[in-house]
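chain below, 296 aa
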Amino acid sequence: MGIELTQEQLAVLKETRAVGTPAEFQALREQARPELDRIVREVMEPSQPISTTLTELRDLYLAVVQYEAPLASKAYGPERRALLRGAIQLLDTANLWFGEGKRTGAYQVRSIEQVLKASRPWRARLKAFADQAFVFEPDVAEQFADVNSSGTLDEEVSDLGMLLRLAQQHQARLTPVGLTEDFLREGSVLLDEVSGRDLLGILGLRNREEAMVLRNSIVTYATLLGHEARAAGVNACWDIPEAKRRFSAASFRNALRRLRPKRRASAAAPDEPAPLEPTPAHSKPAEPAPVEPSPI
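prediction:
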């Protein structure tokens, strides 16, 4: 029989789950950036599976939600709680995209063919918005009716870019008939993918190493916010023994370790002389070998 989660646990999982698009991930990063820059003085790396740290953080977040009132009375209110929630989402997403999920293929950028197929309903929906918004301005509505007549990648890139610019230009007219920010973000993601950019490129990362630095900074940040929530909970629930024990149990002592410096090549080049060993201070200089007299 499987473990049944409570409604509160299910709500926490929903609130803190990984986001689905690079645009959502970037939005969370921007929200976290000021606090991340303020509190992360040394970026560390995971010392245990990130999935374990995520479980600990979610358990702690559930306690934070349940003891919201005492925490608010001790300077840990909605703003700090929202930062903790966002940090867990960032960590779950980074682990999915750059960690275990990347290796197992849980997240893969769609192929060009898949993006072409996905863009058709997006384009059709945008046309429907424009048909209503500009029903008495057919010249404007016609601009939204463009289709990829050649079926080529170059035309798709050009069309999506043009349609996004039109949608943003006429956003005030299109919003009342159904256009949303999420719809615009979906179009931006389609354009990024059809342009041939992979996940790292979309996120502005140049290589895998930069992705791991970002992942490590996020796990450091999330763990530090976990320490803050633990300390606030222990203090706020000092006179509530059960709650105090629960917050105290969230130690995070195994979550992080300091980054190990890269090893340098220790072997000397073959043509380099071996370094001289220092002579001990108490040793005497070697006696010269006696010279035997030459035979006459």
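Residues 7-106+204-257 form one domain. The chain has two domains: 7-106+204-257, 112-197.
thats it, cya
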